[in-house]
Amino acid sequence: MAQEALSNQAVCKGRFTLGLGTSHHWIIEDMLGLAYERPAQQMRNYLDVLNAALSGPGSVDVENDGYRVHSPIDQTDRLGSAAPLGHYSGVVVATNTVTAALADWREQTRFLVIAATLAAAVIALILFLIIRQISRQNREAQQRLEDAAHPALAAAGFAAAAPGATPDVLVQIGARVTRYERSPWDDPLWLRGGFGRWGPRPWVGPYPYWYRNEPPRYDREVALLLRDRANGAPLYEARATTEGTSSGGDELLSAMFKAAMTDFPKSGSVPHTVSVKLSER
C-alpha cells in the first residue's frame, strides 16, 4: 500500500489523496484473519505501520497491539506473497526485490550474450579469412592471366600505360579450362566381354572385361577484346581454343594468346588453325 501510494503521489505531482477505511468484518476476519472487535483501534494500528512506511526510505520497525512489522521499505520494486495463518490472527508476508529475483536470469542472459558475441566474432573472423584468401587467389589468378597475355600484346606493339596516364586502348582478357571425364561414359560399349578361354581346366566363360580408366579431357579457351577508350568501339576480338589431357599452364596460356593475336589487326569470324611453337625446356 505504501509503495503504491508513493508511486501515485509521484505520478500526480503531489495531488494524490489516499483514502482509508475500516472495511468489513468478512474481509478483516474471514479473509485476513484479523480481529474486528475494535475497528477504530485496528485502523490506528494500521496507520502506525503505514505512516512509518510512507516516511521512508528506510526500515519499518513498528510493534503495537495489532501488528509487529520489521521490514525494509526502501522504495525498491519487490515481489511478494501473503498467506493468513490458519489458527492464529496473523498474516505471513514474504517479499524479495526484483533485482534479487532476477539475478540468476540476468547472469544467464549475460553469459548467453557473451557467448553469442564470441561466436559472432569467431564467425566474422573465419569469414574475413576466407574472403581474404579468395581475394588473394583472385588477384594471383588475374596477375597470372595478365602475365600470360603480356607477350602477345607486346609483340603486337602494345605497351602498358604509365601509372596515372590515360590509356588509348582498353584490353579485356579471359581464360577458361573445362575438364571432362571420359571413362566410361564416352564409350557406349564400355562393358566389354569375352566368350571364354581354354585352360588346364574345362572351358571358362563368358566373362566381362571392366572398362579402362581413360584420362580426362581438358578444353582450353582464351578470349581477347580490344576497345577504343575514347568511344568504346571494339577494335579487335579473337578467341583461341585447344584441347588435351592436362589443364596446361602459364606457358600454354601465353601461346594461346599469341595465337589469338596472330591475325591482328584483322579480325575475322571464320575459325581456322594457328600453330604456335612452345619453348623447349
Rounded to an integer in angstroms, the radius of gyration calculated over CA atoms is 47 Å
Mean pLDDT: 82
**Overall 3D geometry?**
rod-shaped
CATH class of the largest domain: Alpha Beta
Strand line-up of the largest beta sheet: 5-8-9
Share of β-strand residues: 15-25%
Question: At CATH's second level, what is the architecture of the largest domain?
Answer: 2-Layer Sandwich
Sequence stretches where pLDDT stays below 50 over 5 or more residues: 192-198
Order of helices and strands: HHHEEEEHHEEEEEH
CATH topology annotation of the largest domain: Double Stranded RNA Binding Domain
Termini gap: 99 Å
The profile of the biggest β sheet is:
3 strands, antiparallel
Number of strands: 9
Helix content: 25-40%
Integer count of domains = 2
In DSSP terms (H or I, runs of 4 or more residues), the helix count works out at: 6
The structure class reads alpha+beta
Keywords:
9 strands, rod-shaped
What does this structure look like?
This protein has 281 residues and is of the alpha+beta class. The protein has two domains: 2-98, no CATH class; 146-160 and 167-196 and 204-260, 2-Layer Sandwich (Double Stranded RNA Binding Domain), CATH 3.30.160.670. It has six helices and nine strands; from the N terminus they run αααββββααβββββα. The strands form four sheets. It has a three-stranded antiparallel beta sheet, with helices on one face. The protein has a two-stranded antiparallel sheet with strand order 1-2. The protein has a two-stranded antiparallel sheet with strand order 3-4. Helix 1 crosses helix 3 (39-54). The chain starts with a helix and ends in a 21-residue tail after the last helix.
